[in-house]
Amino acid sequence: MIIEDIWFDMRDGRKALIRSPREEDVQGMLDYLVISAGETDFILRYPEECAKYTYESEKQLFERLNASENDAMLVCLVDGRVAGNCQINFNNRIKTMHRASVAIALLSEYWNQGIGTRLFEEMIRIAQEREGLLQLELEFIEGNTRARHLYEKMGFRISGVRPNAIRLKDGTLLNEYMMIRRMK
C-alpha cells in the first residue's frame, strides 16, 4: 500500500516527512534498525540481531509492503534521515479480517516531537478506510510507560497480558501487554 507524502511541523519547528518507504531509504532503515535496537530494551531485537537484515532483504520488504493491499509501512524522515517507522497489517482470513495490528518505533532523539502521534493518526486514517475493520491491536513491553501513554492517548486500552513474554540478556523477565483500539 502506497502512502503519499505527508509533511508536518515537529514541535521543535523542523519539518518531517511521512511516506511509504523507497529504495533510497534502505541504508537509512538498516542504520535505524541497529540504532533503535540499542537505545531501549522495549524493542524486540538486540543490535546484533540486525545483521540478518540486508540491503536486498529490506528492498524486497519495501517492495512487498508497497504492493500489498493488506500491509503498509510508513517511514518518517527528518532532514533526510530515518527517524522512525510504523506498520499496519490487516488480517485477510474471514474469521479475523475485522482486526489489524500496528507497530511503531522512533529513534530516541526524536521522542516528544509529535512524530509518534502523527504516525498513529495516519495508521488510524488508513484503518478507517478499511471496510469491516473493528479493531486495531498492538503490544508493548512492561515498563515502557512512554509508549503506553502514547497508545492510550490514541485510544488503545489494555486487553490482556503475556506473563514473562520477554527475557532480557541479564535474565530479567518482563510481561508483554496487548492493547486494542475499537474502530466503531
Summarize the topology.
Elements: E1 6-9, E2 15-19, H1 26-39, H2 55-67, E3 71-78, E4 81-90, E5 99-106, H3 115-128, E6 135-141, H4 145-153, E7 157-167, E8 173-182
Parallel strand pairs: 5-6
Antiparallel strand pairs: 1-2, 2-3, 3-4, 4-5, 6-8, 7-8
Short synopsis of the structure:
The protein is of the alpha+beta class. The protein has helices at residues 26-39, 55-67, 115-128, 145-153, and strands spanning 6-9, 15-19, 71-78, 81-90, 99-106, 135-141, 157-167, 173-182. The chain is globular.
Write out the CATH superfamily name of the domain at 6-133: Gcn5-related N-acetyltransferase (GNAT)
In total, the number of strands is: 8
Distance between the termini: 23 Å
Give the CATH architecture of the domain at 6-133: 3-Layer(aba) Sandwich
Principal-axis shape equals globular
**Average pLDDT across residues?**
96
Which residues form runs of ≥5 with pLDDT under 50?
none
CATH structural fold name of the domain at 6-133 = Aminopeptidase
Record the strand order, biggest sheet: 1-2-3-4-5-6-8-7
Derived from helix and strand composition plus strand pairing, the structural class reads alpha+beta
Topology order in helix (H) and strand (E) letters: EEHHEEEHEHEE
Proportion of residues in extended strands:
25-35%
